[in-house]
Structures are given as structure tokens and as C-alpha cells.
Amino acid sequence: MNEAKYKDIAPYKGQDVIDAVNRIKAYPKFLRNMAEVLYAGNIVKTKWKSLHMKETIPPLLDQVKSYEDFQRLITAGVFLPTIERNSMTEFTFSGQENLDADTPYLFISNHRDILLDCALLDYALLQSGFPTCEMAIGDNLLVNQFTTDMFKLNGGVTVKRDLPMREQYKESLRLSQYFVELITDAKKSIWVAQRSGRTKDGIDKTNPAIIKMLYLSYKFSGISFKELIKQCNIVPVAISYQYDPNDINKGREEVSKKLHGTYTKKKYEDLVNMLRGLRRFKGNVHLQLGTPLREDYNNADEVAYEIDRQIHLGYKLWDTNYLAYDLLQGPTRFTDKYASLNTKKFLNRYKDLSDELRHIILRSYANPVVMQLEALGM
Question: What domains sit in the chain, N to C, each tagged with a CATH number?
Fold first, then answer.
């Protein structure tokens, strides 16, 4: 794999890692900002924890020589355990028995949270004794040097967007080569969301264009589509949050699209959504690793269908999903599934919203139930 060919989009390596770590250590507000993120703005706790982090984080940063070190020591060693304690009831995962530690994979997951979907996958992989993976991220998230350093120190692969059509095609060819060479030559895994942008309506559907992109630079090489898909070792991943910290914001985006046909993001809106997703309560969170795609697939639609099937069946349905389904579809089908849920408290979150917005939010919780029932043929 010619790493120099991909230097501008690949995660940091070698001296770039050391330089980025030094920039982070020199950033005056780094530890306080991290404490504010991890402790959700609790002033007393943030001040105490930021002092504590001054003792623990710098020695760990001194040990970082690769992005894998940063993922293991900082992200999975400090940040994610703290986020789990402060904003989750419990984080669980399953399906690791489907994987082999010596095999690189292309993880394709549903997309609910900007940061946590992939970060929690790495967290689960490390706890299971597997190597971490790189992650494909849009360059719209790289708003400054600090966020760029943090992403690329976490294995971030830059997906360049809003390019002219000719340049976009060339960049897609290069990204196609990077994904495949990373897996087949460098023997490293990578994560990509099943579609561009987070799911706003609770319907997790893979965009076949993601699969077509993989084959884009290889369709004239003599290798068949079927063989390339097998070489990529695609593993569907389903992640489910009992409570979505961004559900109201996602709902408002859907309302805007319905009224105006489009939605224009405000400056730094992605950053605000990232912080909200990290800080706010998520309840129970589960990540299900699927079975690698080993069959013969003739086209991207067939691959996307199988990814969706595994995600819909692997999605862990929570009491919030079943309650929303019954509220929208009928009052009695799943009452036993949310008997212990404080339904009044859950619905009070939306009491001051318009009927349309509240309906859209509830639909986003109900649709995973619809998708799983369809996958089961029920």
C-alpha cells in the first residue's frame, strides 16, 4: 500500500502523530474542554476533574506513538469509560464470536450519532481483544486544527465533500482504492456509515452507492464484483440507543425538510450535535456485530439488502421503541415490553412541541420496530 498516495486523507502516522500530540498538549483549553464534555458542564465536577486530568492525561499522551495508541490509551482508556458512566445506564455488545482477530473487516453500521457509533465499535473491539479500526468521516466535521487532530488521532479517514463533479469522481476512485488496499494489503479494518448523514427517521437503510464506490476503481481490473465484496470482509453493525440525545433536533430537521424541501445547517451545528451526543443521557446502548458477508452477491443492491437485513434483525429494541410503536400503530401490541418504563416522564420531554414534531420524533423511535418486524416477515 502506497501510504504517500493517501497522506492527505489517511489518519496521522509517524511524525504527524507526534506533532498532533504536541499541538494538543500545547492547546491551552484542551483538558478543561475535555472535562466539560465528559462531565456535561457540571461546574464543580468539571473543575475538580480537569485538575485530575492534568495528572492523568499528559503522561498517557507521552506514550502515544500511533493512532492505535491514542485510541487505546485516551479514547477507550479515558474518554469512553467516562461517557459510559456519566451518560449511559449500560453499554453492551455481542456478536464478537463472528469475527477473527487476524482478519481485517469493513464494518458498515447504521448511523445515529456523529462520534459514538464508531467510537463504541472500537471500544467493543478492544474489550474483545481485537484491533481497533479506522473510520471514514466527512471533511465538514474538521472545523479547525484541534478537531482535525482529534479525528485523525482516532483513525479518521477524510471523505472530501462538495467537490466539483469531475474532482468528486477522481476522489471517489482514490477513496475506493484506499478502502480496499487498507483491508487487503495493510490488513487493517475500517468503519463507514451505511449512508451519508445520520438517520433522522429511525429507518436504517444502506445507500448502495457506498457499495458501488468500493468497486469503482476495480471494475476494469479483472476482479469480479463478487470477489471484491468477499475480499472486503463486510460486517454489518447495528447500534441502538434507548434515548437519542439529538432526537428533537433531528425531528426539527425533518419538519424543515417537509415544509421547505431542504434544511440548511447553522455554523458549528455538527459540533453542537457531537457535544450533545456525548454529554446527554442515552440510557442503555447496545452494539451488535453481524456475520461477515461470504455469499456471492451480483450487485450493490443485493449487498445493501443483506446489510440492512442484519442491521434490522440485530437492532436491540428498547422499551422506548415499543412504546412509540404502540402509540402510533395501536395501543396494546407490546404493552409488556415497556411495563417498567416511566411513560409519563418519557413523553414529558416532548410536551411543549408541536403535534407534528412530536409525531416525527415518536416515529423515529417506532420505525426500528417496524423494520425488525418486516425483516422477520411479521
Answer: 3-13+90-316 (3.40.1130), 317-378 (no CATH)
